[in-house]
């Protein structure tokens, strides 16, 4: 099944002066077929030559397909001058409530400063 919609995101940089990477808190508000919130943390690193990576764990509390519950999204991204990749998947067995059996992958689309999502999921 495919759920689509938009989301607002607020990233709050954390002051981790001794850490080798940056850390941000993530707060999201999802609307569309997935209605709810996301909260998590992101770790990122950019090299001097512009290669960047990030990893994040996001806890989603939402209603999807008339079912309410929670699940965890795992984010893995990489960007360089030659390539860009982003992989977001639902952590196996992370669903709870009426979303306890959820599995799938999310795609994020950024266009004109706006964020939208496509969640390909199954129960």
Tally of separate helices: 0
CATH topology: AOC barrel-like
Euclidean distance between termini CA atoms? 9 Å
Instruction: Give the neighbour order of strands across the main sheet.
Output: 1-2-3-4-5-6-8-9
Order of helices and strands: EEEEEEEEE
List how many beta strands DSSP finds. Answer: 9
- Global Rg: 15 Å
| Relevant CATH superfamily | SO1590-like
Q: Average pLDDT value?
A: 96
Major sheet: 8 strands, antiparallel, barrel
Q: What overall geometry do the principal axes of the alpha carbons give?
A: globular
Can you name the CATH architecture?
Beta Barrel
Number of domains: 1
Secondary-structure content class: mainly beta
The amount of beta strand, in percent, is: over 45%
Indicate the percent of residues in helices: under 10%
Low-confidence stretches: none
* Highest CATH level, the class: Mainly Beta
């Amino acid at each position: 099944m495919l759920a689509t919609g938009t989301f607002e995101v607020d990233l709050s940089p954390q002051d981790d002066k001794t850490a080798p990477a940056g850390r941000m808190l993530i707060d999201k508000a999802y609307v569309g077929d997935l209605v709810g919130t996301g909260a998590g943390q992101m770790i990122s690193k950019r090299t001097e030559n512009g290669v960047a990576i990030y990893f994040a764990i996001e806890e989603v509390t939402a209603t999807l397909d008339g079912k309410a519950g929670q699940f965890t999204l795992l984010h893995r991204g990489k960007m360089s001058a030659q390539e860009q990749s982003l992989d977001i998947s639902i952590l196996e067995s992370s669903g709870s409530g009426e979303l306890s059996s959820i599995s799938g992958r999310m795609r994020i689309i950024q266009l004109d400063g706006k964020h939208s999502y496509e969640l390909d999921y199954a129960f």
